[in-house]
Automatic annotation (TrEMBL), chain A:
One GO BP annotation of this record: P450-containing electron transport chain
Gene Ontology CC annotation, any one: mitochondrion
Name of the featured protein: 2Fe-2S ferredoxin-type domain-containing protein
Organism per entry: Podila minutissima
Keyword Iron included in the entry's annotation: yes
Domain called 2Fe-2S ferredoxin-type: residue spans: 10-112
Gene3D superfamilies: 3.10.20.30
Family membership noted in the UniProt record: Belongs to the adrenodoxin/putidaredoxin family.
Molecular function GO labels: 2 iron, 2 sulfur cluster binding; electron transfer activity; metal ion binding
TrEMBL record, chain B:
GO cellular component, one term: mitochondrion
Protein name in UniProt: NADPH:adrenodoxin oxidoreductase, mitochondrial
Pfam families: Pyr_redox_2 (PF07992)
All copies of domain FAD/NAD(P)-binding, residue ranges: 72-290
Region annotation Disordered: where it falls in the sequence: 1-42
């Protein structure tokens, strides 16, 4: 899908794993997963939106979450397997953008931490 | 192990409640129950040989200064999600990396092809990402080539050893998965017809060449038992009970369809040694079972009620939903349907008994348990009471198991290559330079593809960090795998490339189209190799 012309799309904020907020624009009807991918954000979507993987898990702001219809049983089944499940978790491939959702904020949950990389001190310089 | 404790705590938190039967603190679903006896067997497995470490010692202090300019050569052993996702991340983040992926079979993708159920095609969409990885000019698939002879006695010699690769790469990633299955260790498990490993059965119906000689006859009994309560157990039960017309539309092999056409199996009991709170299957797979047409569901309603009351508010969301689904399943189950399935709890198999004449399974003797111990770590204790369950088929589904290979540390108690976030360590917790692990081999045979992916990315980060920080690796001065391939070819060994695989796959698609299914798999290595020429 072509990207919306600047200022013409629906505004969506993503909070990256590094904690940075990135504001991008979405077309109406696009899924949050599509929006994230189109903007090179690190959201996986391994099963290509077929509700079989949970790698498109996003944590929404309370307000936007409550505007959405309840997730289906099948979506909840997959969410149960997501890392860092929270009360406002959704699968990005199942949330379709509408004008009412303008300003939505979606946090990309942090992955498994790597203590080795975080903690190891380089021995050679 | 030095970094271990902290990391484990962290993960514990993330997986809370998804935790189930794995005593070692594993996470979710794909695995089930591990009974006692085999743990002792494992201790006696062969000692490890430490050749990699010796090999690399002479080199570890040599230059890492040149790493900025030269290419980063990585060998990956195994082409399942563990190998592919790690490769994906490395190729993306280190532009000068070049990856050779060795795979024992002529065909890639590991359990995505040979494990994931045929009626879960959507799960297999992950293959599209693997195909993308394979298109990267810095990636090479080296199929039909095994690396590392398994240390179990009698194992066939591998085409290459890890030491052969060590001379040509900077890093070696081990992602060869879980090669065997756990056994119950009870009488007649191996000798009676009709008793088999779920792993073998799954491999059989998914076309895994090494399981095609399995003796599968579903026409002699109306009752099958699956031992273990994880997702693999439910996969097996579902394949036995799903209407054949539905399965014919999947890539289930024609060989299996012929067998199912003659199937007389009507009732499947899925048995666990603990209670409903300890099941390892997840809600998606349970929901599918409860939606099977014409199939009554049985389970002990009182046990569920008392267990739920006992757990009270301590249940987290996934477990609460799962228990809710069971309750609903009991309530909405239609009685007296032509087929049925049941979940049976607090039962441990003690013995398989057969018909003296033809050595076929007739019944399982079960010991009845009660639960003991803390809420989050409840154990099954034998009450001494026993019962017998008549059945003509039994599938043991208590877990897959990795095996050590020559020249690489292996923790036979945990069944993994010991590692810290993917970096292989030896028995004294010393780092083995240049050696890494990912996938089921790294964490144990548990977890869906999504968790294997998260895990693979973690290993990739470890590898990338070592490379960019100038940590000691194998730092081979060779230019990569070309000499290895030359040696293989000079021995007349047939190497399969990803393009070759695509030819095989194309033929599988064509055969599938003729049969009205997405693909018809080749089920022998010979057929696969022939399809290339
Ligand atoms: C029956 C079953 C059903 C499953 N269903 C699902 C599902 O529906 N959804 C889901 O998300 N997950 C599912 N899983 C889990 C998923 O398959 C695993 O998480 C994942 O495949 C593990 O990846 P891996 O790379 O570690 O191992 P594997 O996928 O096993 O890959 C290992 C690879 O290494 C190769 N190999 C082995 N030895 C050697 C050697 N010496 N040299 C070279 N190559 C070697 C093997 O041939 C294989 O290709 C299922 C698992 C099973 C067992
Ligand atoms: S992409 Fe797999 S569930 Fe959304």
């Amino acid at each position: 899908m072509p990207r919306p012309a600047p200022g013409q799309g629906i505004k969506v904020n993503f909070i990256t794993r590094e904690g940075e907020t990135v504001t991008v624009e979405a077309n109406e009807g696009e899924s949050l997963l599509d929006v994230a991918r189109a903007n090179d954000l690190d959201v996986e979507g391994a099963c290509e939106a077929s509700l079989a993987c949970s790698t498109c898990h996003l944590i929404l702001d309370d307000d936007s979450f409550s505007k959405l219809e309840e997730p289906s049983d099948e979506e909840n089944d997959m969410l149960d397997l997501a890392f860092g499940l929270s009360d406002t978790s959704r699968l990005g491939c199942q949330v379709l953008m509408t004008k009412e959702l303008a300003g939505l904020t979606a946090k990309i949950p942090s992955a498994t931490r790597n203590m080795y990389v975080d903690g190891a001190k380089p021995k050679h310089h | 192990m030095m970094f271990k404790t902290k990391r484990d705590d962290e993960e514990e938190e993330q997986h809370q409640g998804q935790e189930s039967d794995n005593e070692e603190g594993g996470n979710t679903d794909r695995e089930i129950e591990m009974e006692g006896p085999e743990a002792e067997d494992a201790e006696m497995e062969e000692e490890t040989v430490w050749s990699i470490q010796e090999l690399s010692c002479s080199k570890i202090c040599s230059g890492s200064e040149d790493r900025v300019s030269r290419s980063f050569k990585v060998a990956v052993v195994g082409s399942g999600p563990g190998g592919f996702y790690t490769a994906h991340r490395i190729l993306k983040q280190v532009p000068q990396s070049s990856i050779d992926m060795y795979e024992a079979l002529p065909v890639p993708h590991g359990l995505v092809r040979f494990g994931v159920a045929p009626d879960h095609p959507e799960v297999k969409n992950v293959i599209n990402t693997f195909d993308e990885v394979a298109e990267n000019p810095n990636f090479r698939f080296i199929g039909n080539t095994s690396v590392g002879t398994f240390v179990t006695p009698g194992s066939k010699k591998a085409d290459l050893e890890v030491a052969d690769l060590a001379q040509h790469y900077d890093a070696i990633l081990l992602a060869y998965g879980a090669h065997e299955d756990r056994v119950l260790g009870v009488p007649n498990e191996k000798s009676l017809r009709g008793v088999m490993a779920a792993r073998s059965f799954v491999g059989f119906y998914n076309g895994l060449p090494s399981e095609q000689d399995l003796d599968v006859d579903l026409s002699k009994t109306d009752t099958a038992v699956v031992i273990g309560q994880g997702n693999v157990a439910l996969d097996v039960a579902r394949i036995l009970l799903t209407p054949l017309e539905d399965l014919k539309k999947t890539d289930l092999t024609e060989k299996m369809i012929k067998i199912l056409e003659k199937s007389t199996v009507k009732h499947v009991h899925v048995i666990g040694r603990r209670g409903p709170l300890e099941v390892a299957f997840t809600s998606k797979e349970l929901r599918e079972m409860l939606q099977l047409p014409g199939t009554t569901f049985h389970m002990d309603r009182n046990l569920l009620a008392s267990e739920m009351e006992r757990a009270g508010k301590s249940l987290d969301r996934p477990r609460k939903r799962l228990m809710g689904l069971l309750e609903k399943g009991i309530k909405e189950s239609k009685p007296n349907q032509p087929k049925s399935w049941s979940l049976q709890f607090l039962r441990s198999p003690l013995e398989f008994s057969g018909d003296g004449k033809d050595g076929t399974l007739k019944a399982i003797k079960l010991g009845i348990n009660r639960l003991e111990g803390e809420d989050n770590n409840r154990r099954a204790a034998a009450t001494g009471a026993k019962e017998e369950l008549e059945c003509g088929l039994a599938f043991r589904s208590i877990g897959y198991k990795s095996v050590g290979i020559q020249g690489v540390p292996f923790d036979s108690r945990k069944g993994i290559v010991p590692n810290v976030d993917g970096k292989v360590i030896d028995e004294n917790s010393n780092i083995v330079p240049g050696l890494y692990a990912s996938g089921w081999l790294k964490r144990g045979p548990i977890g869906v593809i999504a968790s294997t992916m998260a895990d693979a990315y973690q290993t990739a980060d470890t590898i990338i960090s070592d490379w960019t920080r100038g940590e000691p690796m194998l730092d081979s001065l060779s230019s990569g795998g070309a000499p290895v391939l030359d040696i293989l070819r000079s021995k007349g060994h047939k190497v399969v490339s990803y393009q070759d695989w695509k030819k095989i796959e194309q033929k599988e698609f064509e055969m599938g189209t003729r049969l009205g299914k997405p693909r018809e798999k080749f089920v022998s290595v010979d057929e696969m190799l022939k399809a290339i020429d």
